[in-house]
């Protein structure tokens, strides 16, 4: 039998590389920088992670929620974790349960409370009236094959930005989704290390009843990636694959993912949508859901829709034409263009500032839900304006912010 020292067992926090869609949410959420990544995997630093659980709820796929009992001296190193295509088999812990001391400073079970210090700006629960979401029905081992039924360019032909609306049909195989959820697409082939590509995540741009009503299909909004954020040329592996898809092509899909960024369903619920670029996908899905409901029910029993939408210029704005055709009494649309020649640079937060009075009216209402999607950089600016809105009405932002978070009323999905 192992000695007591040898027998020290702990639970090691691991990320399942098969399910992880490399969205970076965990790394951003971790309050103590215990999560990192290389070009292949997201991994947990065993010497730093304190099992605080802050990363668990925000993870869209559940890949983060793995805890393997391991001998302390056999904890998996970062190098080992980087090399995995799947989680390792459980270690054989040949120690009688009674003799198994738990290493100091680790948890003996999963009942760990979220510490006050693990600050997350957005809600970790959906609105109370959101429909039930199904998640992780299909993974890399049991992916679902979709057939491309359309691939349309959304941006003006004159624009260098190639953003596409791609429709995927699941035929007879069930794929239940809600607005705000996302899917993973597995690009074919292998990477430079000869490993299969991991899936890339795309938000759904279509509502729950299909891109085409009552069809078992979905749409996604994909931008062809030709350069990185510093302007260096890169070839986006999945984005180029998806943008080049032709009608009839078959695609490997996993998901659906996401259980919090969901829209409210109760009458009178207002939605404020704030997005940049392709972050407009879930906003299109929610808008389309409300538009169809309004059409079906003849009476608009739902609340107000207010949209703040940022892009470099009008030609780069996905869904610009269709958006402009929506009735003004249905949705209040506010564009922010940052690079229109001869015009001052405007970001969504600047345009929100111009609408402080109307935003305050909505913020005062407990039935107002806020959704932010797009570039990571916008998050701080948007929260700052919301704080200003609250202050303009004499509201205490920290109280309001806590209320928004606790009641599933503030949702942030930025990358
Ligand atoms: P983009 O074209 O690079 O940017 C859109 C607009 O946002 C531009 O006007 C840009 O202005 C502006 N912007 C830059 N920094 C900002 C800041 N700090 N605050 C407010 N606005 C700012 O956007 P994109 O390439 O479409 O990227 C959208 C993001 O959404 C990506 O990070 C993507 O991963 C994410 N996303 C995509 C999906 C999807 O399903 N495809 C879903 C969710 C999220 P300037 O460039 O002129 O400064």
UniProtKB/TrEMBL annotation:
InterPro entries: 4Fe4S_Fe-S-bd (IPR017896), 4Fe4S_Fe_S_CS (IPR017900), Benzoyl_CoA_Oase_BoxA (IPR017634), FAD-bd_FR_type (IPR017927), Flavoprot_Pyr_Nucl_cyt_Rdtase (IPR001709), FNR (IPR015701), FNR_nucleotide-bd (IPR039261), OxRdtase_FAD/NAD-bd (IPR001433). Its cofactor is FAD. It catalyses: benzoyl-CoA + NADPH + O2 + H(+) = 2,3-epoxy-2,3-dihydrobenzoyl-CoA + NADP(+) + H2O. Residues 141-263 form the FAD-binding FR-type domain. Keywords: FAD, Flavoprotein, Iron, Iron-sulfur, Metal-binding, NADP, Oxidoreductase. It comes from the Bacteria. NADP(+) binds at residues 203, 223, 278, 338-339, 345, 374-375, 413. One of its GO terms (molecular function) is iron-sulfur cluster binding. Its EC number is 1.14.13.208. Signal peptide: none annotated. Gene3D superfamilies: 3.30.70.20, Nucleotide-binding domain of ferredoxin-NADP reductase (FNR) module (3.40.50.80), Translation factors (2.40.30.10). Residues 11-40, 42-70 form the 4Fe-4S ferredoxin-type domain. PANTHER family: PTHR43314. Homodimer. This is Benzoyl-CoA oxygenase component A. It comes from Advenella kashmirensis W13003.
